[in-house]
Write a structure and sequence with these properties.
The chain is α/β, with parallel strands linked by helices and about 220 residues long. It is about 40% helix and about 15% strand. It contains 8 helices and 7 strands. A 7-stranded mixed β-sheet has the order 3-2-1-4-6-5-7, with helices on both faces. A hairpin with a 5-residue loop joins strand 5 and strand 6.
Length: about 220
């Protein structure tokens, strides 16, 4: 029997100077890219054998992203003129393949909790749309049973993304469930939050590559 649910990760090819540009202004381009690459490794380690098939949706479409992840990992090039269109097209494709629940996260939220993914999947029994609010006004997770267009007209990468998406959902009569608030790792303050997570609980065990990169920086700065 095919899987009912799928986890898709929106990711960018880890090229120095292109990924995590806001973090790069504080860390430097090479460090920012090394950190993002660690996110990709940790996400794959966490979810490749999880309860849902893992799909990488990558950009740029012409990049050799499949070489970055394990051989045989499913990788789909993102298609569309902007982020919203690329996300919508990804939902359309995977729902069209017969998946009943599509859960989408970004590669800049490797710390997303397993229980939040489970909650999203469970709530899709009744809700049409599940969102994980992030502190910057966007969302770290979006999940749907059908590829509803809650993307057109939404100004992505702004502080109003969540509000605008909820407005689109309300206009379409969709039932929405919100997960606990968290954060994406985009700026220096987000990195501080991530370091705090790594120093408490079991997050460090879930993100060993990320923790190792951050530890290596600490060692160099102390020496």
């Amino acid at each position: 029997m095919p899987a009912r649910s799928v986890l898709v990760v929106m990711a960018r090819y880890p090229q120095v100077g292109v990924v995590k540009t806001r973090l790069a202004r504080r860390l430097g381009a090479e460090r920012a890219c090394a950190l993002y690459s660690a996110f990709l490794r940790d996400i794959e380690t966490r979810f490749i054998r999880g309860p849902r098939p893992l799909v990488w949706a990558f950009t740029p479409a012409e990049s050799d992203f499949p070489a970055v992840v394990s051989a045989g990992a499913r990788c789909l090039p993102q298609e569309g003129h902007d982020l919203g269109a690329r996300m919508h097209n990804c939902f359309r494709r995977l729902c069209g393949e017969g998946f009943e629940r599509v859960l989408m996260v970004g590669a800049d939220a490797p710390h997303v909790r397993d229980e939040w993914l489970d909650e999203a999947e469970s709530w899709l029994d009744g809700a049409d749309l599940v969102l994980g609010p992030s502190l910057d006004g966007g969302y770290y997770l979006i999940a749907m049973r059908q590829p509803h267009d809650v993307f057109s007209g939404v100004r992505m990468s702004t502080a109003s993304v969540l509000a605008d998406t909820c407005h689109q959902a309300a206009q379409a009569g969709l039932r929405v469930h919100l997960l606990p608030q968290s954060f994406d790792i985009d700026a220096a303050d987000d990195l501080v939050r991530l370091q705090q997570l790594l120093h408490c609980g079991d997050t460090a065990n879930l993100l060993p590559a990320t923790a190792a990169v951050l530890r290596s920086w600490d060692v160099r700065e102390r020496s």
